[in-house]
Fold each of these.
Amino acid sequence: MKTQCNDGQLELQGLGKRKIIVSNDAEVSSSDAGLVLLDQIDQRYHLIERLSDCFIDKRNSSWMIHSLETLIRQRIFGLCQGYEDLNDHDEWRKDPLLSVLCGNDDGQWVAGKSTLNRLELGKEISEEYGARYSKIDWDEEKIEEVMIDLYLDSFGEEPEEIILDFDATDDPLHGQQEGRFFHGYYDCYCYLPLYVFAGPYVLAARLRKSNIDASAGSVDVLDKITKRIRARFSEVRIIVRADSGFCRESLMSYCEDHPGLYYVFGLSRNSRLRRSIGAQMHEAKRWFEKTGQPQRRFVDLRYRTRSSWSRTRRVVAKAEYLPKGENPRFIVTNLTKLRWPAQRLYEYLYCGRGDMENRIKEQQLYLFADRTSTAWMSSNQLRLYFSSFAYLFFVLLREKALADTELQRSQASTLRLKLLKVSASVRVTVRAIRVKLPYAYPYWNSWLDFSKAACFG
C-alpha cells in the first residue's frame, strides 16, 4: 500500500488489519527535554553570560525583541541539540521549553534564522554597509580569555602541572569562502584552524587560511595562554605538546626563555637522525627476526640542525622494527632525563597527545565546528567559537554531572542521543514549569544522577 498523506496526517503501511496513522498533534510539545540539563549547567557556570559579555550590542533597546544573551543561548543550545543550520531554527523556535529557558515567560517564540544570521554577520555588515548598519560586534580576544578562564576555574587548588596540546586540522570548504586555499597535504580547499586543548578543555580555536605553516601564530597563542595561567597559578609547570608541524625554532626558543615552560615536539626524521640510531635499529631487527615480535629501543641523543636551530637540544629516538619494516620516530624536548627517561617520555607523555585528536574530531563531527559555510572568515570564526562553547557544555556534563557514572566517558553524540533528545510535554504556569518525560524513557536514572551531582547543588 502506498503512503497516503494530507495536511494533518500520514497513513503508512499497516500491521495486519490495522492502519498506521501518524500525525503531529500529540500532547508532547518538545523533542528536546535535555535543554533543562544544559540550562542547569549554564546556571552554575554562566557560560552564556560570560560569552555574551564579549559582544557589543548597539541595537536600540526600544526596538529589541530578543536580547543578545537570548540569541547566543539559542544558537549554542541548538548546536548542543544537533541543529547545525540556522534554517532549523525557523521551526525549532516554536519549542515551548526553548522559549521558556531563553527567558520568554509569555510563550513568545525565540528568534528565527534571519535574526540569528544578523548576529553572525555583524562584522560583515559593518564592512559592506558601514558602522551605521552594524549593530552587533564581538571581541575575539575576550572570547579566548573566557575559554582559558573556564579551564582554570575547573581547579579547586593550584595544579602541579598543565599540559597544553597544540594541533592544526583541516576544515574543508565547498564554496568560494574568503581565505580559501588549496592544501596539498589534505588534497582539498580548506581552512587550517589552530586548536589548543588542556585535557578535555578547549583553550583556543583560531580559524586560519591554509596557505601557512601549521605552527603559524602558535607563539602568540602560547604567550597569551601562559600569561593567563601564570596570573592565576604562578608556580605551575607548563608542558607544550605537539607533533612535528610545531617543531619550530621560534616556539622552542620561547619555551626555553621562560622558566617553568617545557615542550615535547615530534621531530621529522632525516638521514642524520636515522644514522645516529643505526646500531639500535640493527639490534631491534635482529631480535624481531629471532622472536617474530615487534621490537623497540629508545635512545637519548644530543642533536642540532645545520642551520635552523640556535642550539643543541635533547632528542629521544625510538628505533622500532615491525613486520612491515623499520619505523624510526623522533621527538625533541627540554625536559630532563632525570624527570623524564626516554621510554617514559615517548610512550607516556608524547603519545598521550593522541587524545586531543579525538576531541577535535568530536567537535567537528558532532558539534559542527566545520560548518564554516558563510562567505567571510570573521563570521566563520564566530561559528567556530559557538561550536567550541557548545563542546564545553559537554565537557562540563561529563566532568561535573556525570562523574563516576557509565556515561562519564561518552562522546557528545551519545549524550545527545540518550539524555538531550528526549520528548516531553511542557506546561508553564505562574508557579512552575512542568516537564513530563515518557514513562518508558530508559535513561531516567541518569537524570536522577544529575540531580545528585555537585553542579546542580
Amino acid sequence: MDLKAILKSHKEWLESGGEDGQQANLQHAHLWKADLRDSYLQYAFLQDADLWRADLRQADLQHANLRGADLQDADLWRANLRGAYLRGADLRDADLRQADLRGAKLRGANLQHANLWRADLRGAHLRDADLRQADLQHADLQDADLRGVKIFSGWTLVKEDV
C-alpha cells in the first residue's frame, strides 16, 4: 500500500468534488505510528484501521468513518473530527487537546485517560462512551448526548425522562 499515493488521490477527489482522484479506503489498514499530520482525510474510510500512536495532529477527518478504529495513544491535537463516525473506537490515552469533535458519533467509544482539554464536543453523541479518568478540563459538552457515559469507576450517567 502506497499511503502517500492514496492520500494524494483522496485530496484530488476532495478538491474536484469527486470528479478526479479516488476516495481513500483504508479499512483495516495497519498504520501504526503513521505520520498523518495535516492530512486531508475528510470522508475517508478508516473502519477498523490500526492507528495506534499515529500522528494526526491538525489532520482534517471531518465525516471520516473511523468505526472500531484503534486510535490508542494517537496524537489528535487540534484535529478536525467534526461529524466523524467513531462508534466503538479505541481512543484510550489519545491526545485530543483542542480537537473539534462537534457532532462526532462516539457511541461506545473508549476514551479512558484521553486528554480532551479544551476539546469542542458540542452536540457530540457520547452515549455509552467510557470517559473514566479522561481530562475534560475546559471541554465544551453543550448539547452532547451523555446518556450511559462512564465517568468514574462504577459510575454511569443516566438521563431520566422528565
Amino acid sequence: MVDRYVLDTSALIAFVQNEPGAETVGKILRRAEEKTATVFISFITLAELYYIIWQEEGESAAKELIVLVKSLPISIIESQERVTLFAGRLKAKFRLSLADAFVAATALIITGVLIHKDPELEQVNKLMTTEPLPFKSKKNKTA
C-alpha cells in the first residue's frame, strides 16, 4: 500500500525556506517521485502560500513559489461539498482557523498523515494521524 500524506502550508513553507522539518518534507516528496507515497495539499494551501510569501517577499516571489509547488509531485484537492462540510464540522468543534479546518478535513477524507508545523493542528490528532514538524519558537517581543 502506498502511504498518503497531506502537507499543511507550514510544512511546505518549512521545505522551501529550509526550516527545521524541511528534510522530512523532502523525504516525503522523494517518496512521491518514486511512487511509494502520494502527497496532497488542500486548495486553500495555495492561497495561504501565495499571500504569506507575497507579504514576506513580494508578488514575484509568491508567483514563483506557486509555480514551484505545482511542479512537485503533489495532488491538489479542490473544494468540494464533502471537504467543505467536514471543514465546517472541524471548525465548529475545534479552535481552528478556517484554512486549518480545510487542511485537516482534506487529511481526514483522503485518510492521509497530516504533516504540519502548526500547534493549532495538534487538536485534531485524535481524529487522524499527524506528524508534527519542529514548531517555530516564539520570539520574545520587547518594546
